[in-house]
Amino acid sequence: MILPSKHIRISESLIGLGAYLLKYLNDGPKSVDQLWFKVGKQNETKKAFSYHGFDNVVLALNYLFIIGAIDINSEGLIYNAVNKTISK
Amino acid sequence: MFVILTADDLYIARKLFQLEIYKRNGQSYEDFFSKIMRLHNIDFIQIKPQGQFGDRKNDGFIKSTGQYYQVYAPENLSHKEKDTIEKLVTDFNGLYAYWNATVTPILEFNFVLNDKYQGTYPSLHPELTKIEENHVGVKCKPFLSQHLEDIFLKLPHNNIEDVLGKIPTAEDINLNVSNLNEVIEYLISLKDGVSPETFPVNPDFEEKIVFNSLSSPAATFLRYGSYQDGALKDFFKVNSTFAKDDLKNTFSKLYKDAIQEIPDSDSKNDLIFFDIAKKAYPKQGKVYQDAVFVLMAYFFSYCDIFEEPPLKQQQTLFQ
Predict the structure, then answer these.
(1) How wide is the angle at C-alpha B265 spanned by C-alphas B263 and B270, nearest 5°?
(2) What is the DSSP secondary-structure string of B26-75?
(3) DSSP H or E segment with residue A72
(4) Does A5 contact B at CB distance below 8 Å?
């Protein structure tokens, strides 16, 4: 579910997870493995609003790519395609 | 094993029985009727249709008492007045011609109708009387859903469970998470369309039970189901988050279908409750029943099934 709904909170939706992934990309380009590692860590903390499996991470990355929010650089790493200042 | 059903269990059994009556037509009703009659009286003999002769206008009889039963269960009896009377007359004549002389004299002819608790036409009774007058010694009467229900509820409790499956009890609802997954997968496979989102303004569980006039047994299922809410939320958190939306649509559809299918009566909401529960089991078994009741309690609390009580508003002075 991309958008939140009556039973899907924003933190459970792909748009919510997408926001987390973009936040992780603020530190610079990352591989899918590195992003999943971050999400996995987040899942284990008590602060996590929702649990997200690897499937959801892939779906959220697809969604971010489709809307042009992320792209892949020459090294095969994912970077924030909107805020270019943090993509190098 | 000897089974003892409490008053609440019998209430639930009665509602489940009524749902069977509403659902069954034609051969399916005849099979249901025969099963109950066989359990009620071991002398009841069901007649299997035989090639070109059919059942010789006799669906079942008790030889020792001379009681004969002929079943008629069209989809909607209320539009079949002429057909019903025609069937009564032809079937009785056929029955009398073959069975009276060759097997055992007819002392009682029961015209079994699935009236779905609506009663039968006034015009049927003069025809029954006419048959009695023309055939001295034969009692002729309609045998309606209410009569089958009376027989059914007097059956030993083991037999009641034979017919309906295990009668669920609210007190020992226990969520088995591995079975929950199977129930959810089954429910998602039922899904059809998307229902509009309505956000409840007044999500008070107890108030909703009263507002929807649910009986005490149905309310107990919802309350006990809601006690497992924590386990359900944990399950959703790590398993199928997105399934929640699909489940909402499925339950909402089951609820709307039940409103259409079940005729109006004082206990309509209870019948809807048990209808949803029954359709949501992937297969018979307590673990599946429990999972379904927990899910129903969850979606009941969010008003995806049953209606939301209107918000109390203070009346204005000048209205």
Answers:
(1) 90
(2) HHHHHHHHHHHHHHH-TTEEEPPPBGGGBTTT-SEEETTTTEEEEEE--S
(3) strand A70-72
(4) yes
Q: For chain A, what's the residue count?
A: 88
pLDDT > 70: what percent of chain B? 93
Query: Are B193 and B248 within 8 A, CB to CB?
Result: no
> Of B155, B59, B45, nearest to B114 (Cα)?
B59
Residues facing residue B46 across a β-bridge: B60
Q: What is the token pair recorded at B169? A: 């009890």
Question: B198 to chain A: which residues are within 8 Å by CB?
Answer: 6
What does the block give as tokens for B116? 């779905």
ipTM over 0.85: no
Site of tokens 């010694």: B137
Report A:18-57 residues touching B (Cβ under 8 A).
50-51, 56
Check whether A88 has a pLDDT greater than 60: no
Measured between beta carbons, which residues in chain B are less than 8 angstroms from residue A50?
A: 237, 241
Q: How far is CA A71 from the centre of its chain?
A: 12
pLDDT at A34: 95
Tokens 């297969």 belong to residue: B283
Q: What is the pLDDT at residue B317? A: 67
pLDDT recorded at residue B310: 79
Residues 6 or more apart whose Cβ sits within 8 Å of residue B152: B17, B36, B40, B160, B163
Question: Looking at B33-191, which runs of residues are DSSP E strands?
Answer: 44-46, 60-62, 67-72, 108-113, 139-143
The C-alpha of A44 sits at a distance from chain B's nearest C-alpha, in angstroms, of: 11
Burial class of A33 by CB neighbour count within 10 A (0 to 12, 13 to 18, 19+) = exposed
- Partnered with residue B54 across adjacent β-strands are B50
Q: What is the pLDDT of residues B128-173, one digit of tens each?
A: 888 888 887 888 888 889 999 999 999 988 889 889 888 888 888 8
